[in-house]
């Protein structure tokens, strides 16, 4: 936080301090989510980690990024799942489990909704391009 509130050895001007601290905090939340994406993290568990209420953290995150924290967690899970399927050759079930989804069925449903293809088709398309 000290580094985030300093510019060239001087304290950030008072008018910019709130935005700077907010940006730093949102960055820390995002990093925490990415570091723990394999776990069954939720907005509530992230909020508890940072000693915020679920609703307050959700509002702060959405105001700062334009994306809800829940959506960020979901998108981060999906990105991690794509990485696992491409680089590790895991099955859909193993990918769903390792990327923190509650079930392979839910993972497949969300993956199809967000990517326009099933995880199996994504894996097949990736193996054909090798």
Distance between the terminal alpha carbons, to the nearest Å? 44 Å
Order of helices and strands: EEHHHHHHH
Principal-axes geometry comes out as elongated
Q: Please state the structural category.
A: mainly alpha
How many separate helices? 7
Strand content: under 5%
- Low-confidence segments: none
Helix content: 55-70%
Widest sheet: strand ordering = 1-2
Largest sheet: 2 strands, antiparallel
What is the average per-residue confidence, as pLDDT, rounded to a whole number? 85
* CA gyration radius, whole angstroms: 18 Å
What's the count of strands? 2
List keywords for this structure.
two-stranded antiparallel sheet, 130 residues, 2 strands, 7 helices, mainly alpha, 68% helix
Overview of the structural elements:
- With 130 residues, this protein is mainly alpha-helical.
- The chain has seven helices and two strands, in the order ββααααααα.
- The chain has a two-stranded antiparallel sheet.
- Strand 1 and strand 2 form a beta hairpin.
- The longest helix is centred in the N-terminal third of the chain and has 22 residues.
- The chain is elongated, with a radius of gyration of 18 Å.
- The model has no long low-confidence stretch (mean pLDDT 85).
Describe the SSE topology.
Layout lengths: L5 E2 L2 E2 L2 H22 L7 H7 L4 H12 L3 H19 L4 H7 L5 H12 L3 H10 L2
Antiparallel strand pairs: 1-2
């Amino acid at each position: 936080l000290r580094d985030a509130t300093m510019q060239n050895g001087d304290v950030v001007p008072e008018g910019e301090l709130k935005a700077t601290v907010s940006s730093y905090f949102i960055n820390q939340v995002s990093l925490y989510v990415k570091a723990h994406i394999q776990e069954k993290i939720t907005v509530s568990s992230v909020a508890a980690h940072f000693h915020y209420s679920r609703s307050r953290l959700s509002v702060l995150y959405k105001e700062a990024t334009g994306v809800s924290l829940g959506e960020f967690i979901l998108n981060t899970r999906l990105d991690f799942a794509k990485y696992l399927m491409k680089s590790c050759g895991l099955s859909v079930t193993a990918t769903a489990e390792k990327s923190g989804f509650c079930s392979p069925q839910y993972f497949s449903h969300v993956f199809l909704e967000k990517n326009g293809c099933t995880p199996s088709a994504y894996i097949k398309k990736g193996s054909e391009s090798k």
